[in-house]
Structures are given as structure tokens and as C-alpha cells.
Specification:
The chain is of the alpha/beta class. The chain has a six-stranded parallel beta sheet, sandwiched between helices. The chain contains 19 helices and six strands. β5, α13 and β6 form a beta-alpha-beta unit. It is globular, with a radius of gyration of 32 Å.
Length: 497
């Protein structure tokens, strides 16, 4: 039996998460959606390892809040974190409690500090975003520590799913920025990012005015490697990373509530999007073992041209944003490069009805079934392409291997049926001679149901026995019931006195 192809999936959370189990509900929704769209068993086809980077900054943010506003806020901060954890697991009530507390200038058990919820949110949200920035040429402390968490998750995926398994990344809020930076660094580090920048549909560079100096090169010049991955992150990746760990099998990127539009202000011209699928993964969706075999032309062309040449819509970058989310924006209008790199900007209202049309929608992407359905459909396309199943063709479900039966319990269904039957020896009467009947034993076998009714005649029992062939012809369900009834027919004493 051919093993089910596997795809690797990691989720990267945003700034509002402080719970290691933040992805539990999101992963469950994703598995259901994948099973619906692929027809495959998600336990066999998906290997999921969430990236949890919050511990890198959480102790420092707690200490900052305590130093600035006093230790009297600790109790209220613990309550806020409990509600945030419940929101991550899909609790609408906790989301309502958080949003209500944000409207209160004073909270009784929060001390004299005014607007305690909003101050805590500002520290948590803005603190993560500010601390993640590279402070200088040599100061990558937080940047490296967060990227090291991503490297550990990818290493676990390479072990569990395969060194060349297709990689799918879901990033929410700041997690989308982390994913973009991490894999962009890898693409440049290993010489997979074109020196001329992403190319337009006609294969013409977008112009030196929109390409940074370090990426400029002569027309037709091949990509060259540059050191962008810091030493600490490279140490976490290891000396001999797999194709998956090098980002060469990246096929899907789904950004949720992404502030990449704001972060692109750091680069003049909004010019440097991540290439998805990775250039080396462009030709690797035809089956297992071909995850890093993209040709030279695919490495130098846009994802749109690769889709046209490969004949598959699997893989790509989908950006999901809510018009009421104050953090996220559409990405394709940023520049021609982003228009080519991002397959689709999907506008979607997320969250409960009372929060969907407001800023609180930003924290609900993970828990929205429509977002999970979108992600599950994208993963199903990638899995089908990796398994060599054409679009629209039904997928063959991989049968589960039956659990081993303990020793001493055995045999076929007939053997087990015989072991359940009550024999004359089991009644204590003894064996009967051929052609004779023991006293008190009816000649015709009757069912247990018939035997429990006093006054049941032998004629009724004979009619039920004669009706068995007709019942077996009425369908698979009735035939199964008839076989079960037949297996349960035993000889019982005649209770008619």
C-alpha cells in the first residue's frame, strides 16, 4: 500500500497571544476543512507544528508593566491573560469581557491606574512590534530569538513530515511579518532570490529605482547568496538543514490580519515581497521527492508565470484581511512586485456579529470557520498536487490499519459467532443422539426474542426462519441484521408447561 503523502504546516501567532495552546481550536477547524476538501485523512496527510514565540518577550513585558505601574496590577494582569487565553480557544464570552473592560476608565481590583486594559494592550501589542525590530547592524537579539523558535518548529516538521515535504505557513498579525522576514532571509541567504528583484509578467525587471542597491544586478545575472540569517538563527537551523528547513519547499503562505503594509514602509517603493511558492518549490508539486527541483526559468519568474507553466493552481500567497480590522491592509496594491507575489487579497468579515464590524475582529481570525475553510481548501490543493491527484478527481481515502487483536481473541467472524452460540452441552443436558431430541428441547431453533414471549408457537418460529432469505435480499443493512440474527439463533428449552 502506498503511503499517504504528507504536507508540513506551521502556524505563527501574533502579538496578543501568550498561551502555548493558542492553535488548538484553529488546528481542529483546519483539519476538518482539509478533510472536507481533500477527501484524505488529516491525521495521515497533515503534520502540524505551531510556532510559539511569546516566551521570548513575555517576561520582559511583565516586568516593564510592573516597574511602570506598580505591583498592584499583577492580579488584574493575570485576569486579562486568562481572558486572552480563552479568546484564543474561541470563547465569545471572554472576548466580550475583554472588550467591555477596555471601555472602563477605572476597574475596582486594578488599582488606581486609569484605563488599565488599554494600557496593558498597548504594552503587549506595541511592545512585541517594537521589540521585534532590528536595533542595529549587530543587535538582532529579539529578532534572532524569535526566528530561532521558527527554526525549531521547522526542524520538527522535517523530522515528522519528511525533509522535502511541502511547507504551508499561516501567519497572523505580527506572525505574518515574522514569516515574511524569516523566509525572505532564507531565500536571499541561499541565493534563491533574484538579484534584480521579482520580475514582471513579461520577464522585464521592474527598474533600478524600485530595487534596493544590494539586489541590483545586470540583466540575466543569476542570484547570488548573501548573509542575512544571523549566526544565532543559523545555529538553531543546524549545520545540515533539510530542504524544508531552508525554506525551499515553501508552497503556501496565508497571512491573516497582516500589518505587512505598514512594515513595508521601511523599504522605499514597497518592493521586496517574499516569493511564494519558493523558487525552488515551483516545479516540485508533481509528487513526493520533487519538492526542490524547480528549474532555472522558474527561479527567475513570478509566481503567476510559474502557475501558467506548471498547469496547477496549488500553492501561493493568500492575504486575508477584514475592512474593519485597523491593523491589516490589502497587499497587492502596494507595488507591482506585491501584485505578482500575492495570489489574492481576500476581504472577509470575521468574528461574532457584535464584534465583526469593529477593531476587535483582529483577534478572531484563528477561530473563524470561514478562514479555516479557506486554509483547508488551499492545503487540499497542495496535497492533491503533491499526491499527483488531478483537480476534481476524487481522492482515495487511505484505509486505517485495524488495531491488533489481543492473543486468544480470534479467528474469523464465523468463529466468533460459534463461540457466542449456546450449545446443548452448555445447558447441562448433555449431547443428543443423531435423529433424537432431548426432552424439553424444541426441534426448530428460535430467536431469543421469540423465546422470551410465553406461548410462542413453533409455527411462528418456522415462519420467522423461512422469512430470513427474503430479508437478506432487501438490502445491505437488512442482510447484515439477518446474519446477526442467524448467528444469535440457539436451541433453548421449551418453556410451555
Amino acid at each position: 500500500m502506498t503511503a499517504t503523502p504528507r504536507i508540513a504546516v506551521t502556524l505563527i501567532h501574533g502579538v496578543e497571544t501568550a498561551d502555548a495552546g493558542y492553535a488548538d481550536r484553529a488546528v481542529e477547524l483546519l483539519r476538518r476543512a482539509f478533510a472536507k476538501h481533500s477527501g484524505a485523512d488529516p491525521d495521515e496527510a497533515l503534520v502540524v507544528r505551531p510556532t510559539f514565540w511569546a516566551p521570548v518577550l513575555q517576561p520582559a513585558e511583565d516586568e516593564l508593566f510592573q516597574r511602570c505601574f506598580g505591583p498592584g496590577q499583577a492580579r488584574y494582569v493575570r485576569w486579562l491573560k486568562r481572558q486572552t487565553k480563552r479568546v484564543d480557544h474561541g470563547s465569545r464570552l471572554a472576548m466580550l469581557a475583554l472588550s467591555s473592560s477596555a471601555l472602563l476608565p477605572r476597574v475596582p481590583f486594578a488599582g488606581p491606574l486609569p484605563w488599565p486594559t488599554l494600557r496593558w494592550v498597548t504594552t503587549e501589542f506595541a511592545g512585541d512590534a517594537i521589540a521585534y525590530q532590528i536595533a542595529g547592524e549587530r543587535d538582532h537579539t529579539v529578532y534572532d530569538a524569535i526566528h530561532a523558535r521558527v527554526a525549531v518548529a521547522l526542524r520538527e516538521l522535517a523530522v515528522a513530515a519528511g525533509r522535502e515535504a511541502p511547507l504551508c505557513v499561516l501567519g497572523h498579525s505580527l506572525g505574518s511579518v515574522i514569516a515574511s522576514n524569516y523566509f525572505y532571509d532564507l531565500q536571499v541567504e541561499h541565493g534563491h532570490y533574484p538579484r534584480g528583484g521579482p520580475l514582471a509578467d513579461g520577464g522585464i525587471p521592474t527598474g533600478p529605482g524600485r530595487v534596493p542597491p544590494q539586489l541590483r544586478g545586470a540583466p540575466g545575472e543569476q542570484p547570488t547568496a548573501r548573509r542575512l540569517v544571523p549566526a544565532a538563527t543559523r545555529l538553531a537551523i543546524g549545520p545540515a538543514p533539510s530542504a524544508l528547513e531552508r525554506g525551499e519547499t515553501l508552497t503556501d503562505l496565508i497571512t491573516l490580519g497582516s500589518p505587512l503594509g505598514l512594515y513595508s514602509l521601511r523599504s522605499r517603493g514597497f518592493h521586496r515581497p517574499l516569493l511564494v511558492p519558493a523558487p525552488t518549490a515551483a516545479g516540485g508539486l508533481a509528487g513526493p521527492g520533487r519538492a526542490a527541483t524547480g528549474d532555472a526559468e522558474a527561479q527567475l519568474t513570478s509566481p503567476r508565470r510559474r502557475d501558467a507553466a506548471g498547469g496547477t493552481r496549488a500553492g501561493g500567497w493568500i492575504n486575508v484581511y477584514s475592512p474593519y480590522d485597523l491593523v491589516s491592509q490589502p497587499l497587492r496594491p502596494l507595488s507591482e512586485e506585491y501584485r505578482l507575489a500575492v495570489r489574492e487579497d481576500l476581504r472577509m468579515t470575521v468574528g461574532p456579529w457584535w464584534a465583526a464590524r469593529g477593531p476587535l475582529s483582529h483577534v478572531w481570525y484563528w477561530n473563524d470557520p470561514r478562514v479555516a475553510d479557506l486554509a483547508g481548501r488551499a492545503l487540499a490543493r497542495t496535497w492533491r498536487a503533491h499526491a499527483g491527484i488531478p483537480d476534481g478527481a476524487p481522492a482515495q481515502r487511505t484505509p486505517r490499519r485495524p488495531a491488533a487483536r489481543p492473543a486468544g481473541i480470534g479467528g474469523t467472524a464465523a468463529d466468533r459467532a460459534r463461540s457466542r452460540a449456546v450449545t446443548p452441552a452448555a445447558t447441562g443436558i448433555g449431547p443428543a443422539k443423531p435423529g433424537t431430541t432431548k426432552p424439553g428441547i424444541s426441534k426448530a431453533p428460535v430467536s431469543k426474542a421469540a423465546a422470551t414471549k410465553p406461548g410462542t408457537s413453533k409455527a411462528v418460529t418456522s415462519q420467522a426462519t423461512a422469512a430470513k432469505p427474503a430479508a437478506m435480499k432487501s438490502g445491505p443493512v437488512k442482510a447484515t441484521a439477518a446474519r446477526a440474527a442467524d448467528a444469535g439463533k440457539v436451541a433453548v428449552p421449551d418453556r410451555r408447561w
